[in-house]
């Protein structure tokens, strides 16, 4: 079993984790969350999202959050932007890495962004152009890579086409998202292989939701294919408001526990991460989605 010696974790809790919360999380708690996460050794913490506040009211305070965090040297703080307007809002508060997002399923992308896939790619062209001129790094997301709540099956060729388009536009990394968490390991591996024939593996990341309890198994199958960047959300928070039935993301604590158990380095202090996840579940007023944190609490 060949595994990478190290994995970079992209922590998406403050964005993907919180965007689906119906009760407003105080801005100060969002800032504290990002700062606590960056203190655990994580090198990438997706801080917030400059999407339309009408679509995602929970993250309407994106500018205040971004302006309030303490940026650590060596940590990247990407933010989600759906269009040039979001890019400008992000830049106004000093963001120097952004993420754009589309889907492999036309129906999902319409629900999520009110645009078809090609139309969303057209929206990103001026974002990528500005980013290049500004020296801003751009990450790309492809959603619904293993199934769509509206369309059902998603052809691998569609996933590969969209990933290739994002990479060709200038995204340094393309994250492949099983938005509704329906994938199983062999399907995840086949999907990654299909994409890796179009986009170099070092430019790929994986993003699993744990709806059916398959996220860690899917990660392992993909690590064996050579991927070395994995998205996760502390405390297993999250879900997409436009992905019916989707549960939380893979919990970062559980990912770190598995990787360290496999001898794969992450640079993350698991104790500090568990503390942060437990603190967050207190803020959200519900049990943590991390099995590791639950096990530690009952030990
Ligand atoms: P639209 O309504 O079609 O946009 O939304 P529009 O361009 O027609 O503008 C309508 C209004 O929104 C205007 O305001 C704009 O100014 C405003 P009005 O004139 O009516 O007062 N507006 C904005 N305001 C602030 N910031 C902006 C912005 N853009 C427009 N950036 C749009 C189109 C894409 C904006 C909208 O559909 C949107 O924001 N969607 C985001 C949905 C979302 O955040 N989904 C979750 C993230 S994706 C995800 O979770 C999946 C992922 O984790 C990977 C995975 O799991 O698979 C990434
Ligand atoms: Mg997601």
Protein traits:
nine-stranded parallel β-sheet, alpha/beta, TIM Barrel
Structural description of this entry:
- The structure is a single chain.
- This protein is of the alpha/beta class and 299 residues long.
- The protein has one domain (8-298): Alpha-Beta Barrel (TIM Barrel), CATH 3.20.20.70.
- Helix content is 42%, strand content 13%.
- The protein has helices spanning 13-17, 27-38, 62-68, 84-92, 106-113, 117-134, 156-169, 185-196, 215-223, 252-261, 270-284, 291-298; strands at 8-11, 44-45, 48-49, 79-80, 97-103, 137-143, 173-178, 204-208, 229-232.
- Strands 2-1-9-8-7-6-5-4-3 form a nine-stranded parallel beta sheet.
- Helix 4 (84-92) links the parallel strand 4 and strand 5.
- Helix 2 packs across helix 3, helix 6 packs parallel to helix 7 (156-169) and helix 10 runs antiparallel to helix 11 (270-284).
- The protein starts with 7 loop residues before the first strand and ends with a helix.
- The mean pLDDT is 96.
- The structure holds 3-hydroxy-3-methylglutaryl-coenzyme A and magnesium ion.
- The site of magnesium ion has 6 residues, from loops.
- Belongs to the HMG-CoA lyase family.
- Keywords: Lyase, Metal-binding.
